[in-house]
UniProtKB/TrEMBL annotation:
Pfam families tied to this protein: Amino_oxidase
GO molecular-function terms, A-Z: oxidoreductase activity
Native source species: Streptomyces zhaozhouensis
All residue ranges annotated as the Amine oxidase domain in the record: 15-457
Residue stretches spanning the membrane: none
Protein name, per record: Squalene-associated FAD-dependent desaturase
NCBIfam families named among the record's database cross-references: HpnE
Length: 473
């Protein structure tokens, strides 16, 4: 293989694109990665913000992963970030009831699956005795479901939960507590196939599968700084602040990608990049715009993959109000709360010395994503004081929100049939992204898996029988 046939283009510098570029480079390709933003990381990134107490490093949203996320863990190892995002020694999720202020825990023990959850379930105070028994039966029922069965994709998770006798209280205190955070949708709006994937893999595939990994550094350190260094070591050329505007088949084979750089970012004239292989690791709407005619049997189905928002609420106090890394809440509009004091750099700011930075991760928020910050402040600050008594005694130093309006694809029933695989009908053209057919919901794991699969298909030269017509010169 020589010349242009060794060249590969990856469009998109999120986790999927970074992964694809690293794999292609390792297989001997000369890779160029093109990213619209001035940084890597996609939708899992950090930025600098001037707050009321000084400049902070803010994650756009709180991202965690599980021990079972083997592909994402592999990416962390590859870029040298695994030690910066360690996994719990053993699963422990504190769950605080806002009404009773009673603290429970979702835990596991060292017994084999499914007995590893039995002790924690028996002691979980937010479920009654009958609810605990019904949850145990449902967990056993999940083991019999096949997430790859197309019939499951057409059903909602809520329908299945009702059939298995789950009460509204059990759904709120357990199934939606986990499902909303991992799927970005409540059970009523979730494909049974995707829910089965989450719960079977996370809770029932291995004793420690659900142990939580939590970054100790900003996401930008992992997904931009370390990733960029790993790409440089691999010989990948990275073009940031560069927009892919067009993609066309070249007359003699291969592809031409038209790109332009953003003003003020080391501006380059518009140009065409040539390569034998192209991986589109961009959101589904952008992929639809760039795909040539005939690359997919029905490319418009990409536009039917809906998106779902995630809201993050950032609160800074003048003193510690939370004495654990994170917790989840029930009977409260608050969902998950994380201590981000260290990663944000708050503990280095003289104006906030001794203070604490909490980030609230709010999934499946619907119309709330549009509400003004002051409305959200009046909703969430009193609620934190209800959950954390010390917050009522603390002084609020700053409050702000970050919004990802298209944070994930919506995992609605029927979405599975809309998600394409990595291989298109156009020779040398492949798709990647958490929205593609990985079998996983829109997680960091799904993104990395899609990049791996697309790159491996590209190396093997896989394609489907239908091909678009080649353009003339």
């Amino acid at each position: 293989m020589s010349g242009e046939r060794r060249r590969a283009l990856v469009v998109g510098g999120g986790l999927a694109g970074t992964t694809a570029a690293l794999v292609l480079a390792a297989r001997g390709r000369r890779v160029t990665l093109v990213e619209t933003r001035p940084r890597l990381g996609g939708l899992a990134f950090s930025f600098r913000r001037e707050s009321a107490v000084g400049e902070l490093t803010v994650d756009n949203g709180q991202h965690v992963y599980l021990r079972c996320c083997s592909a994402y863990r592999g990416l962390l190892e590859r870029v040298g970030g695994a030690r910066l995002a360690p996994v719990q020694r053993r699963l422990e999720v504190p769950v605080l009831d806002a009404d009773s202020r009673r603290l429970g825990r979702i835990t596991r023990n060292a017994l084999p699956v499914p007995l590893h959850l039995a002790g924690g379930l028996a002691r979980y105070p937010h479920l009654g005795l009958a609810e605990r028994a019904s949850v145990a039966r449902a967990a056993l029922g999940l083991r019999r479901l096949d997430p790859d069965d197309p019939a499951l994709d057409d059903r909602s998770f809520a329908d299945w939960l009702r059939e298995t006798g789950q009460s509204p209280g059990a759904v709120a205190a357990l199934w939606d507590l986990i499902g909303v955070a991992t799927l970005n949708a409540r059970a009523e709006d979730t494909s049974l196939a995707l829910a089965a994937k989450v719960f079977r893999t996370g809770l029932l595939s291995g004793n420690g599968a659900a142990d939580i990994g939590l970054p100790r550094v900003p996401l930008g350190t992992l997904h931009d700084e370390l990733a960029r260094a790993a790409l440089a070591r691999a010989g990948v050329r990275v073009l940031l602040a560069t927009r892919a505007r067009s993609l066309r088949a070249a007359p003699g084979g291969g592809w031409r990608l038209g790109v332009s750089s953003r003003p003020g970012q080391g501006h380059r004239p518009d140009q065409e990049l040539a390569a034998e292989t192209v991986v589109l690791a961009v959101p589904q709407q952008a992929a639809h715009r760039l795909l040539p005619p005939g690359a997919l049997p029905d490319a418009d189905r990409l536009l039917a993959i809906d998106t779902a928002p995630i809201l993050n609420v950032h609160v800074i106090y003048d003193r510690p109000v939370l004495d654990r890394p994170f917790f989840a809440a029930v009977n409260s509009p608050v969902q998950w709360v994380f201590d981000r004091t260290g990663p944000s750099g708050l503990d280095t700011l003289p104006a906030a010395r001794g203070g604490q930075y909490l980030a609230l991760s709010q999934s499946a928020v619907g119309a709330e994503i549009q509400e003004p910050a002051e409305v959200l402040r009046k909703r969430y600050v009193p609620e934190l004081e209800r959950l954390l008594p010390r917050a009522a005694q603390a002084r609020l130093l700053d409050f702000f929100v970050t919004r990802e309006r298209t944070a994930t694809f919506a995992p609605t029933p029927g979405v599975g049939r809309l998600r394409p695989g990595p291989v298109t009908g156009a020779e040398g053209l492949y798709l990647a992204g958490a929205w593609t057919a990985t079998g996983w919901p829109a997680t960091m794991e799904s993104a990395v898996r899609s990049g791996l699969t697309a790159a491996r298909a590209a190396v093997q030269g896989a394609s489907t029988p239908h091909r678009p017509a080649k353009e003339s010169a």
